[in-house]
Amino acid sequence: MSTIQGWAVAQAGKALERQTFDVGARAKGLSVGQRVGIGWTAGSCMHCRPCLSGEQNLCGELVATIGGHHGGFADTVRAHWAWPVLLPEGIDLASAGPLLCGGITVLKPFLEYDIPPTARVGVVGIGGLGHMAVKFAAAWGCEVTAFTSTAAKADESRGFGAHHVVASRDAEAINAIAGTLDLLLVTVNVPMDWNALLGTLAPKGRMHVVGAVLEPIPIPAFALIGKQRQVSGSPTGSPVDIARMLAFAARHDIRPQMEMFPMSQVNEALKHLDDGKARYRIVLEAGR
142 and 62, same structural domain? Predict the structure, then answer.
């Protein structure tokens, strides 16, 4: 296995527990034998303003782990030394994968905007992102409202930590909680009744989008102006953000709900996902 100066190379063995990696001569803070995780990002330029400001996830030259780079389905992953994050005790390797991507995605707004534990938080969509958002928000200390279009997910949402459940396609139910939420975290990728959802925000409340909604989101100006509301979005997070997320998850035993598939059944796993049957994150076991 070759190394390149300044980069780390991670290799999965016959089982998850046998992961090892090697480091380049200029890599800092890493040594062979440590448990590390690499999330959505495998590298950044390390000299632009965002990188120098500790916001490497906003770098214009990000190297995605799974896009145009040997990563997601490979048995060897190459990353800049700043991006492999040490895994704390208490994080099992299967849980680490979804946390390193979806986990930091939903926790980032809590870190970025200093969301207090007294906040009332809504989570739109109980899926791969949303179920983790409910878990993190509840562990953060917030009063959590889950919005779901699937009635069968109501009890599951409460099991994840939601205090209230609202049908996301029921305008009357949404209007009933108007003006109550400090943060509304949108994790879906489909059009919604955006005006009604904005109406759930309290004065100075924030609607934060992390779901890949492909259609433009209409934002009525007066829905923002009158109550000084805000709309924002974010990608994943910096290596420091990811480390904070992992430490928080370990302390509060936050684990994604997962289904395990051997790598040899990756096509079956993708069909399971495409059919909408995944509950709620699929993890592929390397070496099987």
Answer: no
Distance of CA 182 to the CA centre of its chain: 20
**What amino acid is encoded at 219 in this protein?**
I
DSSP string, 136-177: HHHHHT-EEEEEES-TTHHHHHHHHT-SEEEETT-HHHHHTT
For residue 42, count other CB atoms closer than 10 A to its CB.
Answer: 24
Mean pLDDT (whole number) for 123-148: 98
Residue with tokens 């770098």, as numbered in its chain: 59
Could you identify the residue written with the tokens 């005790």? 89
pTM for the predicted model, two decimal places: 0.92
Q: Is residue 249 part of a domain?
A: no
Contact 253, 138 (CB under 8 A): no
Query: Would you state the structure tokens that stand for residue 150, as one six-digit string?
Result: 């699937």
Tokens representing 25? 């001569």
Average pLDDT over residues 152-157: 96
What's the domain count of the chain? 3
pLDDT digits (tens, 9 = 90+) for 43-74: 999 999 999 999 999 999 999 998 887 776 77
